[in-house]
């Protein structure tokens, strides 16, 4: 019913930049929260950045200075601008959203399939 599709991943050298985008589609009444997680080999999935229902943002300590998350509400999209990328940023990045499909409905959690970000020199 709800689909999230990420784009913008790829290969970049240390110090470079990438801009990830996520589009939500399907049966959507409202998007209460939308953000990004990542998972590197051998590690647990971790929060990168999120925009909560009230519009506040939350960042992982390791990326707060370098990354910026933003919402494009008119297009049901969220973006992650990643600057000064480091080798440790290499991971699969997943878009996550908490969505209401109709007024009074249960909140559902949706995940994208992920996009690979590889930092290599």
Quick take:
The chain is mainly beta. The protein has strands at 2-7, 10-12, 18-26, 30-39, 46-51, 57-59, 67-72, 77-82, 91-100, 107-111, 115-119.
Strand content: over 45%
Poorly predicted residue ranges: none
Number of strands: 11
Rounded to the nearest angstrom, the radius of gyration is 14 Å
Spell the H/E element sequence: EEEEEEEEEEE
Integer average pLDDT? 96
Number of helices: 0
Helix content: under 10%
Distance between the termini: 40 Å
What class do helices, strands and sheet pairing give? mainly beta
Q: What is the overall shape?
A: elongated
Taking the sheet with the most strands, its summary is: 7 strands, mixed
Tell me what the structure shows.
29% of the residues are buried. This protein has strands spanning 2-7, 10-12, 18-26, 30-39, 46-51, 57-59, 67-72, 77-82, 91-100, 107-111, 115-119. The chain has 121 residues and is mainly β. The chain has no helices and eleven strands. Strands 2, 4, 5, 6, 9, 10 and 11 form a seven-stranded mixed beta sheet that branches. Strand 7 (67-72) and strand 8 (77-82) form a beta hairpin. It starts with a strand and ends with a strand. The model has no long low-confidence stretch (mean pLDDT 96). 0% of the residues lie in helices and 57% in strands.
